[in-house]
Amino acid sequence: MTTVIHHATIVTGARDLSIHFNAAIAIENDLIAAIGPTDEVMARFPNAENVDGRGKLVMPGFANCHTHFVRILARGIFEDQNAPNRPPFTRKRRVPFPPLRPEQRAAMARLGVLEALRSGTTAAMDITNNIQDYAEAIVATGLRLVLAEQVSDRAKGVRVGEPGVFEADPELADKGLQRIADLHAKWHGAGNGLVTVAVAAHAPDMVSPALLQALRDLREKLDTIATIHLNQYWGEVEVIKNTYGMLPTEYLARHGFLQERLVAAHCRCMTPEEEKILGASGASVSFNPVVAARSGNSPRITDLEASGCRIALGTDEFTEDMVQVLRSAVLIERLRLKESERPRPEEAMLWGRLTATVP
Ligand SMILES: [Zn+2]
Predict the structure, then answer these.
(1) Distance from the CA of 68 to the center of ligand 1, in angstroms?
(2) Which pLDDT value is given to residue 317?
């Protein structure tokens, strides 16, 4: 069966950033068969079912490379209580995220996926712990998913970005590694191959060297993707400096966690030297512009891209609206660069595709 969407504006997402105006796209058995001027494509497929695309845009689905579906109702409120950018980096009067029962988490996650689909997202990396609670509910939606089970072993309930010296709890590490293995055994390759189970280290200041190495080995064994919140808070940088005498990206490099199938989220509190280290590894950076703006600190995306990182986009715990993310990415990076034309929307569009992320 063939469908032709005609008289539309078509953005292919190809590297040449081309946009086809008043154009048509022919889809034959789920595959794109042709893109070109409306007259030509319609003449080539005379028996196709035609869809009038006037006033509409046809474009690739978005890939949201950093989200937490179960926190969909947070709407970024918790970003307003985030760790400050100045010493002593302690959070005051922080309202904790309310505890949710597994069925409540499943309801939130489903709501998150619905909102994602509504903005044109066709692939998403969901990062949290105990994904097993709600995996079934979101796999059933048909969205392409990377389920990244997050682990940490920082003792005494200390939160990410909080100052101090790292202390490990080996029991937390063992339980976390087991959760990833269990989720992988059950869900990797599910949904006709649309589900990937990934390995998530929470953040450098939440994961001991031993756990980081174990996660590196597990990722290799499972031959999958890894992710981490990297250089997200200045408090995180302080912990790593105080404990190991180095910077967070150097810490990951030291323990072999940097590689091209890693998605490093945030990368805001980063030195130019760290950007070069990350770029040389070929890792992807998930630029989460809405939460970056909310925390008053945005990564040097143009520099990270120039250093060799692939740039991807994420919502983090804001709304799942990837159109808002794309728009914010352009505006925030222009403001940071003090440039009127860079980055172009077409360039940000390339960041929002699935192929932007991991090989
Ligand atoms: Zn996050």
Answers:
(1) 7
(2) 87
